[in-house]
Design brief:
By secondary structure, this protein is an alpha/beta fold. 59% of the residues lie in helices and 10% in strands. It is built from 9 helices and 5 strands. A 5-stranded mixed beta sheet has the order 1-3-2-4-5. Helix 1 (2-22) crosses helix 2 (49-63). The longest helix is centred in the C-terminal third of the chain and has 37 residues, at 212-248. It is elongated and about 130 Å long. Mean pLDDT is 77; it is low at 1-19 and 252-271.
Length: 271
Amino acid sequence: MIFFKTTLFLYLSTLVCGKEDDIIVIGEDNWKDLLKGEWMIEFHAPWCPACRTLQPVWEDLGSWSDDLGIKVAKVDVTDAPALSGRFMATALPTIFHAIDGEFRKYKGPRGKDDFITFIEEKKWNEIEPLSSWKAPDSIWMSTVAWFFKMSMFLRGAYIYLTEDMGVPYWAGYCIFAALTVIVGAILGLIIVFFIDLLYPPKTQPKKKAKSDDEKDNEHEDKDDVVAEDLIDEAAEKKEAEETAKRDSEPDSGVEETGSPRSLRKRKSRKD
């Protein structure tokens, strides 16, 4: 009886271990393996209740991987936070289907038979793949992954300062605030540099030197203008003199005292 129980226990342990071995653990070192072949990938966390509920179903699917001609993988976001940013796995569990570098997010039922039908009938063709800029191997998602990794590094550094080294919490916040300002200033300078490099400021075109003929024509035009101004000025001066002369002449109706006409009148008065 004891031998039977021991044998049964070893058999069941072998089955469980086999299921675990059928599921490939993906981390930051081997995630590029997902770019080749067909995969079903689960993003999970140990503290997630829904992930724990899905775990037996996912292990059953892993045991069918050879029959379906696919590979079944899982990603622990607590061990590989950068991958959660690279794949934008914001809700857990998140499931992806991948085939030759094309990734599609699975949003259907989460039963073993549903997963098998999804693979066998190629229902993934009905799902739009991720766009090129959202692809995990794109430069944009690599940048997001780097920021996720940096945030986890800063979190670990803060815990080390406050808990291991005994730095006060307010001092830790001040240190990180100062580092944030410094890093922001450096990144701003780098961005401005690249913008100036890619889109240099426009310079005004230099004026072309005038040829000798153009200079001569310009001088002639100026001389003509000066001559016309002198002629106009002389004409105005002459007209002003004539006007002044006319104004200075006596009126024809006004008789001067020394004129012959007045003398005749005086003579007639004597007579």
